[in-house]
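Late entry, evening session. Most of the bench is empty. Finally got around to the prediction I had been postponing all week. Sequence below, unchanged from the version circulated by S.P.
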Amino acid sequence: MHRFKYPIYFLLSFLIPSLTYGGEILLQSTTSTNNSGFYRYILPKFKNDTGISVKVVAVGTGQAIRNAQNCDADILIVHARKAEEKFVANGGGIKRHNLMYNDFVVVGPHEDPAQIRESKTISEALISIFRLQPSFISRGDNSGTHKKELELWRKVAVSVKEHSGKWYKETGSGMGTTLNIAAELDAYTISDRATWLTFKNKRELRILFEGDPLLFNQYGAVLVNPAKCPKTKIEEAKTFLNWLLSENGQSVIQNYTVKGIQLFYPNAIR
Protein backbone atom coordinates (compact mmCIF):
# COMPACT_ATOMS: atom_id res chain seq x y z
CA MET A 1 0.00 0.00 0.00
CA HIS A 2 1.40 3.37 -1.03
CA ARG A 3 1.57 6.12 1.51
CA PHE A 4 -0.09 9.38 0.60
CA LYS A 5 2.98 11.50 -0.09
CA TYR A 6 1.45 14.94 -0.70
CA PRO A 7 0.59 17.19 2.27
CA ILE A 8 -3.04 18.06 2.67
CA TYR A 9 -2.40 21.77 2.05
CA PHE A 10 -0.92 20.86 -1.34
CA LEU A 11 -4.14 19.17 -2.39
CA LEU A 12 -6.28 21.95 -0.98
CA SER A 13 -4.44 24.42 -3.15
CA PHE A 14 -6.16 22.81 -6.13
CA LEU A 15 -9.56 22.86 -4.47
CA ILE A 16 -9.49 26.30 -2.88
CA PRO A 17 -8.63 29.50 -4.78
CA SER A 18 -5.32 31.15 -4.00
CA LEU A 19 -5.04 33.95 -1.49
CA THR A 20 -5.01 36.47 -4.34
CA TYR A 21 -8.53 35.36 -5.25
CA GLY A 22 -11.22 37.22 -3.34
CA GLY A 23 -11.01 40.15 -0.99
CA GLU A 24 -12.85 43.46 -1.11
CA ILE A 25 -12.10 46.81 -2.70
CA LEU A 26 -13.61 50.25 -2.20
CA LEU A 27 -15.09 52.05 -5.21
CA GLN A 28 -15.81 55.77 -5.04
CA SER A 29 -18.46 56.40 -7.65
CA THR A 30 -20.75 58.98 -9.12
CA THR A 31 -24.37 58.58 -8.05
CA SER A 32 -25.78 58.04 -11.54
CA THR A 33 -24.21 54.62 -11.99
CA ASN A 34 -25.40 53.56 -8.55
CA ASN A 35 -28.93 54.99 -8.72
CA SER A 36 -29.54 53.35 -12.08
CA GLY A 37 -28.98 49.86 -10.66
CA PHE A 38 -25.84 49.43 -12.77
CA TYR A 39 -23.70 48.07 -9.92
CA ARG A 40 -26.39 45.69 -8.75
CA TYR A 41 -26.16 44.19 -12.21
CA ILE A 42 -22.42 44.06 -12.89
CA LEU A 43 -20.81 43.50 -9.46
CA PRO A 44 -22.25 40.01 -8.83
CA LYS A 45 -20.90 38.99 -12.25
CA PHE A 46 -17.47 40.38 -11.39
CA LYS A 47 -17.46 38.63 -8.03
CA ASN A 48 -18.49 35.38 -9.67
CA ASP A 49 -15.51 35.66 -12.04
CA THR A 50 -12.90 36.77 -9.50
CA GLY A 51 -14.15 36.28 -5.96
CA ILE A 52 -13.56 39.98 -5.28
CA SER A 53 -16.30 42.03 -3.61
CA VAL A 54 -16.71 45.72 -4.40
CA LYS A 55 -18.04 48.15 -1.80
CA VAL A 56 -19.58 51.19 -3.48
CA VAL A 57 -19.64 54.70 -2.01
CA ALA A 58 -21.92 56.73 -4.29
CA VAL A 59 -21.51 60.51 -4.07
CA GLY A 60 -21.10 63.36 -6.52
CA THR A 61 -18.00 63.24 -8.71
CA GLY A 62 -16.31 66.10 -6.86
CA GLN A 63 -16.79 64.42 -3.49
CA ALA A 64 -15.72 61.04 -4.89
CA ILE A 65 -12.45 62.53 -6.10
CA ARG A 66 -11.88 64.27 -2.74
CA ASN A 67 -12.47 60.96 -0.97
CA ALA A 68 -9.93 59.28 -3.23
CA GLN A 69 -7.44 62.09 -2.57
CA ASN A 70 -7.84 61.23 1.12
CA CYS A 71 -6.98 57.59 0.31
CA ASP A 72 -10.54 56.47 1.00
CA ALA A 73 -10.76 54.47 -2.24
CA ASP A 74 -9.06 51.84 -4.35
CA ILE A 75 -10.64 52.90 -7.65
CA LEU A 76 -12.82 55.71 -9.04
CA ILE A 77 -15.67 55.67 -11.56
CA VAL A 78 -16.81 59.24 -12.23
CA HIS A 79 -17.82 61.53 -15.10
CA ALA A 80 -15.87 64.78 -15.22
CA ARG A 81 -12.86 64.27 -17.44
CA LYS A 82 -10.97 67.46 -16.59
CA ALA A 83 -11.26 66.73 -12.86
CA GLU A 84 -10.21 63.12 -13.43
CA GLU A 85 -7.14 64.19 -15.43
CA LYS A 86 -6.21 66.74 -12.75
CA PHE A 87 -6.48 64.01 -10.10
CA VAL A 88 -4.03 61.87 -12.10
CA ALA A 89 -1.70 64.80 -12.84
CA ASN A 90 -1.51 65.60 -9.13
CA GLY A 91 -0.42 62.05 -8.37
CA GLY A 92 -3.68 60.80 -6.89
CA GLY A 93 -4.40 58.34 -9.69
CA ILE A 94 -2.30 56.15 -11.96
CA LYS A 95 -4.07 56.57 -15.30
CA ARG A 96 -7.50 57.57 -16.53
CA HIS A 97 -9.43 55.17 -18.80
CA ASN A 98 -12.55 55.71 -20.89
CA LEU A 99 -15.13 53.21 -19.67
CA MET A 100 -18.55 53.99 -21.12
CA TYR A 101 -20.84 56.87 -22.02
CA ASN A 102 -24.40 58.06 -22.28
CA ASP A 103 -25.77 61.61 -22.34
CA PHE A 104 -27.47 64.38 -20.42
CA VAL A 105 -31.02 65.54 -21.02
CA VAL A 106 -32.97 68.67 -20.13
CA VAL A 107 -36.22 67.84 -18.37
CA GLY A 108 -39.01 70.19 -17.41
CA PRO A 109 -42.78 70.59 -17.06
CA HIS A 110 -44.90 69.15 -19.82
CA GLU A 111 -46.32 72.64 -20.57
CA ASP A 112 -42.75 73.82 -21.33
CA PRO A 113 -43.20 77.54 -20.55
CA ALA A 114 -39.77 78.41 -22.01
CA GLN A 115 -40.66 76.48 -25.20
CA ILE A 116 -37.34 74.69 -25.39
CA ARG A 117 -38.83 71.74 -27.29
CA GLU A 118 -38.29 73.69 -30.50
CA SER A 119 -34.65 74.48 -29.73
CA LYS A 120 -32.05 73.24 -32.17
CA THR A 121 -29.11 73.38 -29.73
CA ILE A 122 -28.60 73.19 -25.97
CA SER A 123 -27.36 76.79 -26.06
CA GLU A 124 -30.61 77.90 -27.64
CA ALA A 125 -32.58 75.97 -25.00
CA LEU A 126 -30.69 77.56 -22.10
CA ILE A 127 -31.02 81.06 -23.58
CA SER A 128 -34.79 80.51 -23.78
CA ILE A 129 -34.85 79.48 -20.11
CA PHE A 130 -32.74 82.48 -19.14
CA ARG A 131 -34.96 84.94 -21.01
CA LEU A 132 -38.20 83.72 -19.46
CA GLN A 133 -36.62 82.73 -16.11
CA PRO A 134 -38.94 79.93 -15.01
CA SER A 135 -37.60 77.88 -12.10
CA PHE A 136 -34.45 75.96 -12.89
CA ILE A 137 -33.13 73.47 -10.33
CA SER A 138 -29.40 72.83 -10.16
CA ARG A 139 -27.66 70.11 -8.19
CA GLY A 140 -25.16 72.69 -6.96
CA ASP A 141 -22.98 69.94 -5.49
CA ASN A 142 -19.82 69.95 -7.64
CA SER A 143 -20.88 66.64 -9.18
CA GLY A 144 -20.12 65.70 -12.77
CA THR A 145 -23.65 66.72 -13.74
CA HIS A 146 -23.27 70.07 -11.97
CA LYS A 147 -19.90 70.69 -13.65
CA LYS A 148 -21.47 69.98 -17.05
CA GLU A 149 -24.42 72.26 -16.33
CA LEU A 150 -22.14 75.17 -15.33
CA GLU A 151 -20.05 74.60 -18.44
CA LEU A 152 -23.17 74.89 -20.59
CA TRP A 153 -24.30 78.11 -18.88
CA ARG A 154 -20.82 79.59 -19.41
CA LYS A 155 -21.10 78.85 -23.13
CA VAL A 156 -24.13 81.14 -23.33
CA ALA A 157 -22.48 83.79 -21.10
CA VAL A 158 -24.99 83.46 -18.26
CA SER A 159 -23.58 83.90 -14.76
CA VAL A 160 -26.02 81.78 -12.76
CA LYS A 161 -24.42 82.82 -9.45
CA GLU A 162 -26.06 86.21 -9.89
CA HIS A 163 -29.46 84.51 -9.99
CA SER A 164 -28.95 81.99 -7.19
CA GLY A 165 -31.99 81.77 -4.93
CA LYS A 166 -34.20 83.52 -7.49
CA TRP A 167 -35.29 81.59 -10.61
CA TYR A 168 -32.07 79.55 -10.36
CA LYS A 169 -32.16 77.30 -7.30
CA GLU A 170 -29.43 74.97 -6.02
CA THR A 171 -30.21 71.86 -4.00
CA GLY A 172 -26.68 70.88 -2.94
CA SER A 173 -27.95 67.31 -3.32
CA GLY A 174 -27.86 64.31 -5.62
CA MET A 175 -29.74 63.83 -8.87
CA GLY A 176 -32.69 61.99 -7.31
CA THR A 177 -33.38 64.76 -4.80
CA THR A 178 -32.91 67.41 -7.48
CA LEU A 179 -35.39 65.68 -9.78
CA ASN A 180 -37.89 65.36 -6.94
CA ILE A 181 -37.69 69.11 -6.28
CA ALA A 182 -38.01 69.87 -10.00
CA ALA A 183 -41.10 67.64 -10.14
CA GLU A 184 -42.59 69.37 -7.09
CA LEU A 185 -41.96 72.87 -8.48
CA ASP A 186 -42.66 72.12 -12.17
CA ALA A 187 -39.15 73.30 -12.89
CA TYR A 188 -36.43 72.62 -15.43
CA THR A 189 -33.23 70.74 -14.65
CA ILE A 190 -30.43 68.82 -16.35
CA SER A 191 -30.10 65.11 -15.58
CA ASP A 192 -27.96 62.25 -16.74
CA ARG A 193 -30.14 59.94 -18.80
CA ALA A 194 -29.58 56.84 -16.65
CA THR A 195 -30.93 58.48 -13.49
CA TRP A 196 -33.85 59.99 -15.40
CA LEU A 197 -34.86 56.64 -16.88
CA THR A 198 -34.91 54.99 -13.46
CA PHE A 199 -36.50 57.96 -11.63
CA LYS A 200 -40.04 57.04 -10.56
CA ASN A 201 -41.54 60.36 -9.42
CA LYS A 202 -41.65 62.09 -12.80
CA ARG A 203 -45.11 63.64 -12.32
CA GLU A 204 -45.42 66.24 -15.12
CA LEU A 205 -41.72 66.27 -15.97
CA ARG A 206 -40.73 65.24 -19.48
CA ILE A 207 -37.55 65.21 -21.54
CA LEU A 208 -37.81 68.49 -23.41
CA PHE A 209 -34.40 68.68 -25.04
CA GLU A 210 -31.81 66.04 -25.95
CA GLY A 211 -29.35 65.05 -28.65
CA ASP A 212 -26.87 67.93 -28.75
CA PRO A 213 -23.24 66.66 -28.92
CA LEU A 214 -22.44 69.00 -26.01
CA LEU A 215 -24.62 66.76 -23.82
CA PHE A 216 -22.25 63.81 -24.27
CA ASN A 217 -21.53 62.17 -20.91
CA GLN A 218 -18.28 60.20 -20.67
CA TYR A 219 -17.50 57.99 -17.67
CA GLY A 220 -13.91 57.30 -16.67
CA ALA A 221 -12.18 54.80 -14.38
CA VAL A 222 -9.04 55.63 -12.42
CA LEU A 223 -6.92 53.49 -10.11
CA VAL A 224 -5.83 55.22 -6.91
CA ASN A 225 -2.05 55.59 -6.82
CA PRO A 226 -0.46 53.29 -4.19
CA ALA A 227 2.60 55.56 -4.13
CA LYS A 228 0.38 58.17 -2.49
CA CYS A 229 -1.97 55.77 -0.70
CA PRO A 230 0.12 52.75 0.40
CA LYS A 231 -2.86 50.86 1.83
CA THR A 232 -4.62 50.81 -1.54
CA LYS A 233 -5.50 47.28 -2.64
CA ILE A 234 -3.90 47.86 -5.99
CA GLU A 235 -3.82 44.27 -7.28
CA GLU A 236 -7.51 43.67 -6.60
CA ALA A 237 -8.37 47.11 -8.00
CA LYS A 238 -6.36 46.33 -11.14
CA THR A 239 -8.29 43.10 -11.49
CA PHE A 240 -11.56 45.05 -11.38
CA LEU A 241 -10.33 47.67 -13.84
CA ASN A 242 -9.01 45.07 -16.28
CA TRP A 243 -12.31 43.20 -16.05
CA LEU A 244 -14.29 46.38 -16.81
CA LEU A 245 -12.09 47.16 -19.81
CA SER A 246 -12.03 43.60 -21.12
CA GLU A 247 -14.26 42.30 -23.89
CA ASN A 248 -16.27 40.44 -21.26
CA GLY A 249 -16.70 43.47 -19.00
CA GLN A 250 -17.62 45.74 -21.88
CA SER A 251 -20.18 43.18 -23.02
CA VAL A 252 -21.73 43.16 -19.53
CA ILE A 253 -21.99 46.96 -19.65
CA GLN A 254 -23.51 46.77 -23.15
CA ASN A 255 -26.14 44.32 -21.99
CA TYR A 256 -27.41 46.30 -19.00
CA THR A 257 -30.90 47.62 -19.73
CA VAL A 258 -33.85 49.01 -17.79
CA LYS A 259 -37.28 48.32 -19.29
CA GLY A 260 -35.52 47.30 -22.49
CA ILE A 261 -33.53 50.53 -22.75
CA GLN A 262 -29.74 50.45 -22.75
CA LEU A 263 -28.35 52.87 -20.15
CA PHE A 264 -24.60 52.87 -20.82
CA TYR A 265 -22.54 52.39 -23.97
CA PRO A 266 -19.08 50.85 -23.54
CA ASN A 267 -16.17 52.61 -25.25
CA ALA A 268 -13.00 51.43 -23.56
CA ILE A 269 -9.92 51.52 -25.79
CA ARG A 270 -8.37 48.07 -25.64
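Two things to note before I forget:
The chain has two domains: 23-102+218-266, 103-215.
The chain has eleven helices and twelve strands.
Will write this up properly tomorrow.
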